[in-house]
Each structure stands twice: as structure tokens, then as C-alpha cells.
Design a protein that fits this description.
about 280 residues, alpha/beta, Rossmann fold, 11 helices
Length: about 280
Amino acid sequence: MPMAAVNNTHIYYEAKGDGPPIMLLPGLGRGVSYFDAIEPVLRKHFTTIVMDPRGIDRSSRTDDSLTAEVWADDFAALLAHLGFARAHILGSSHGGSMAMAMALQHPSTVETLMLFGAFSQLNRFITLNLNLRIRLAHKLGMDEDMRDFIALWTFGHEFLDHPNADKFLETHLKAVREHTPERYAMICRSMLNWGRKLPGQEGETIVTDLLHRITCPTLVTCGLRDFWIPALFSKIIADKIKHSIYVEMPHCGHIAVREDPEGCTKMITDFVAGRALN
């Protein structure tokens, strides 16, 4: 297995293709399989880099608290391990937090920034949802009940009605079972930490107020049927990164890279090539 020993941990990764590097950062508690629907197409144009973040699946497990900032440091070190000074960085959902953290902490490593369904702050609705997930993980365990609760907040109606959704839900169940309740709770708290919603974070500067520091070309996109992290949060990011391009995907829920892989890969390749986006 390809492992990178960086930052006193071991990161499992896969690098495929031949072209400029693009690093794909997965959403909450997920790893390499998160981008299965778009990675095979992207590797025709890029060297794709996917990984299991620290604490997840084949990478080093830990009971320590993890944050988007810690993961961002790992990914910058992974790029250097692979011999790349810079890469196109794409983050989906909480992977968008990690991508923004890379752009803020390691700006020289980020060629372009692409954010799908990301957030730079949290409201009470999402905070309540995350705290409920933590309680449910301990009460229900990490099995079908938690898989279904997560899926109902993550995917649009059309996607869940599609016959291929059954196969994906089985894969999603496997990913849920990878976590103990304690580890899933820790990962949920990493989202709360990024949103500055943990006890003791009162008065801390929210990430939204730091985004003006990001100067690389940036794409911000979201699904208009995203009930988990609504379009409002992507609009906030796009407003703060003044040079960014903002694109809405009308028929997608939270994970557009799974619900509309063809549309996403075209958007990604067009954005990197500097072409106009529809």
C-alpha cells in the first residue's frame, strides 16, 4: 500500500494519471472512495491524488482531536512527499474546510482552489445537527440507522430514487462502519471546530473573516437541493473571496461530485483551463 510518513503519522494515498496534480479532499469521515465517480475521468487530464485523511480507514488511526488545520498540514506535506510544489486543490463538504485551510496556511502549495458544498461558518441548525449526530452515534452505533440518517441529509431526492443509489448506499454503509462512535464524534467535532462552535471558542475569529487572504483562482459551487449545507454558505464564501467564480448546480444535493459527476468533471476541467463556466 502506498503510505506517506509525514507529520508523525502515516497517510494512505493513491496517485494516478499523468498531468498537473489535482488533490481531492473528501467530506466528513470519508477517504479514497469518496471521489470514485469523478477520479477516473479526471486522471485523463491530471495526476489525481486521493487519500484517507489521518484518523480514517487505512491511514494512522488516532483518538486525538483532529481539525481541518491539522489535515491541511498533512496534505501539504503529502504534496511535498510526492515531489509536487503546488497542486490544484478540490474539497467537497468538510474537505472544503481542509482545502480552505491549505489556502490559508500553505498558500504557495495551492495553484487553484475548488470548493463544493463548503462552509466557513455554521449556524444553529447545522450545529444542532452535528451535536445530534454525536448523540445518535453513541445511542444507535455506526450501522444502517446512522447510514440512513446521514444519507437523508446528504443526498437529493432524485439521487436516492436512482437505481444506482443502492450500490452507493452499500459503499456508504461500509464507510460508516469503519468508524467507532467515538471516532465519528471526534470527526463531527472537527466540523464544529472549523465553524468555531465548540465550547470555549466563543469570541474566536470565524474563518469567514479570514477568507480575504485567499488570492489564488477559486471556484465556489453548491447544489441548490442541498439541505445539509445550503447554498447560502457557498455564497458567503464567494462574497469574501472577491475574485472567485460562483456556480450553482440546480439539481444536486450536498455531494455534487456523486450526483452529477459528468457536470462536475466538465466544470473542473473548464475552470482549470480558464474556460467560461456555464
